[in-house]
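Please, does this match?
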Amino acid sequence: MRSSLILPLLALACTGDPTDDTDVARIVGTTSRAISVGAAHSCVIVSGRIFCWGANDTGQLGDGTTTTRLSPVEVLGAGAGGSESDWDAVSAGHDHTCGLRAGRIWCWGANDGGQLGDATEVSHPQPVQVLGDDGGDAWDDWDAVVAGDRFSCGRRDGRLYCWGLNQLGGLGAGGGDARVGASQIPLAVVDDSNGDPWTDWTTVSVAGSATCGLRQGEAWCWGADAAGQAGHGEAYEFGRFFPVRVASGEDGKAWWSDWLAVHPGGEHTCGLRGGQVWCWGDNTAANLGQGERTVRELVPLQVKTDGGEAGWDDWDAIAIGAFSCGLRDGSAYCWGIRAPGQPELPTAVPGADGGSPFPDWDVLAAPSQHTCGVRANEVWCFGKNDVGQLGDGTIADRDTPVRVPLPE
């Protein structure tokens, strides 16, 4: 799944200022690094502590159990227990989760593809440390982490590394030898022309078996590409085992160098450039924001307005997953038939109980069948809720946002 949380919506700070009427002792993170949703669980950083809720069958909530939680529980510390209060980032994958603290990556939950990066395939219900690329001592200079569907990726010193299942090339480490199947330790994402790792990556995001990143303003994608979600001008059903540039035209021979963000959603991908949102790949679920469903689009198309006209140019951020969302001037918009209301064009997310849309969203997590966001120092979620992934203490689906009660 997605965590298309790239640093989905890539910002490097992790906490925001509390509003005047909130308890200043509890500060909810207001960047994409601080809130994330998986297939059926959700996590958020609050004052440096990680809280998660929802499905927990593989230990993805990190509380040392496999018990489903309808309300937030705190992620335990490493070893015997306790907790930590210096988490910098969290990313919820399909059924595992990863976090970043003090330059080290820790992961927990399912490990059937080696996605926890600890050189085993043993699942863990509380954090274990990701090891180095030789299976030895863990590195302490990571600055980003994202979790996907049975694999994870991170960044250190401008290089990208991925580990776990290499289905369709999502690890970006090339083909041949043992790298095709899976890796239980980090492998560098490499240039297919010489096999060397690039050293200038600025972002990374994952969803399903697809991965994307930015370097020098150019968008690159790899992994799943059967629907053209790599954006290279042609689909490749066997996946792309090396990064390819997202094209600006159908011939795949030209590209833009002013991308601000790029996020795969699994079967489609969207990016942000110059305040405009562009999407490509599978459109059978109307995730491309064109006001109609088509089979697929192999190069980027600009997302239209809510009235079907030429697209807006004042988008601030995007959150891409099973459906597509974005923020403009504090208002949240979503589109795609898996989004509440099944809109084929960007549609404002209503407020609580269907009221007027909230005008003050700080961030939205890349959606699964549900999503969560932060506004006014509080977490709000909407969508599917069969295992408590909305965190409101129920299993009732919600088409409009509900507030998640957070521990003090």
The first strand starts at residue 35 and ends at 37. The chain has no helices and 28 strands. Residues 38 and 92 are 5 Å apart (CA to CA).
